Each structure stands twice: as structure tokens, then as C-alpha cells.
Amino acid sequence: xxxxxxxxxxxxxxxxxxxxxxxxxxxxxxxxxxxxxxxxxxxxxxxxxxxxxxxxxxxxxxxxxxxxxxxxxxxxxxxxxxxxxxxxxxxxxxxxxxxxxxxxxxxxxxxxxxxxxxxxxxxxxxxxxxxxxxxxxxx
Length: 139
Hints:
The protein is an alpha/beta fold. The protein has a single domain, classed as 3-Layer(aba) Sandwich (Rossmann fold). The protein is 35% helix and 24% strand. The chain has a 5-stranded parallel beta sheet, with helices on both faces. Helix 1 (14-28) links the parallel strand 1 and strand 2. The model has no long low-confidence stretch (mean pLDDT 97).
């Protein structure tokens, strides 16, 4: 059985809801999935999991949350190449450009991104289905 870490930061609960859906999709596909706040995760935790879904909403000028999420991402990013990784998050303005920028950053660091899912505000039915599918793909 594979073990999936779903690591997230959420300010309004939208990305947290997505994290729960990703974990549910992984569990439905037969994996063990753990939902973890980014403040409780570091590179020392990576070897305990087979796959990872990282979730962060768009902040400021289309960027990652800088107080908790980005420091955690900076810590784990160098250790992620060769591992199964997906990205997800919510946004409220623009068109989700932060996810494109995040994916480009990850790929420039040598990380192969399995997939990404974004939701405008709280995940609607389409985003919910996509989150569950993301979890299943990581399982």
C-alpha cells in the first residue's frame, strides 16, 4: 500500500477542503493518505511517504504564502526530484497564474509534476472531482 502526504496551507479553508478531497481520492484508490499542515512538515519527513500533494492558495501578486508554506517548500524542494509530486490550490482573482509559476519553479528544480489542480475559491463540483482524481493518481 502506498502512503501519500497531502501537505497544505490554507487561509480561508478553501485549500484545506481541497487537501481533504485529494486525500479521500488517494484512500479510495487504496493508498494510506495523511493530511498535514505545512508547519508540521519538513524534508526530514519525506522518506516516510511514497507520493506527495502540496497545496497552497494564490497570495499577493500570484505567489505562494510566504510565512509558513514557502519556507517549508524551500526546505523540501531540493529533495523532491525523482519523487511522485502533485500541486493544488485555490485562488480568488486573476486566472490562476500562481500555479503556472509554481509548476515552472518546481520543474526548473528538477521535479516532475504529475498534475496540478486549481479551484476558484471553494472547490466546486468539477474541482472536487479533479482533486479526488489527483489523489487517486498519486495512490
